Amino acid sequence: MTGGTVAVLGVTGRNFAAGMSGGIAYVLDLDGEFVKRCNTAMVDLEPFFPSPSSKASWHGSSGTTVRPTRRF
Fold this sequence. Notes:
The chain has one helix spanning 34-37; strands spanning 4-8, 23-27, 58-59, 65-66. By secondary structure, it is mostly beta strands. Strands 1-2 form a two-stranded parallel sheet. Strands 3-4 form a two-stranded antiparallel sheet. Strand 3 (58-59) and strand 4 (65-66) form a beta hairpin. The termini are far apart.
């Protein structure tokens, strides 16, 4: 990916982010194993935790809105 934004809601394959030279990927890490599958040569990993008191919504570049429907 070069300069895009993606939200990954499923399990990734091995070597995720290999060749990624720009952009942001939000990855839902349900099994806690994403760090082992991510190629960190060109990316930094940071946790993302929205405030529990906020009514979070995410806006996509296409103008669509995604709202969480389940709390984990």
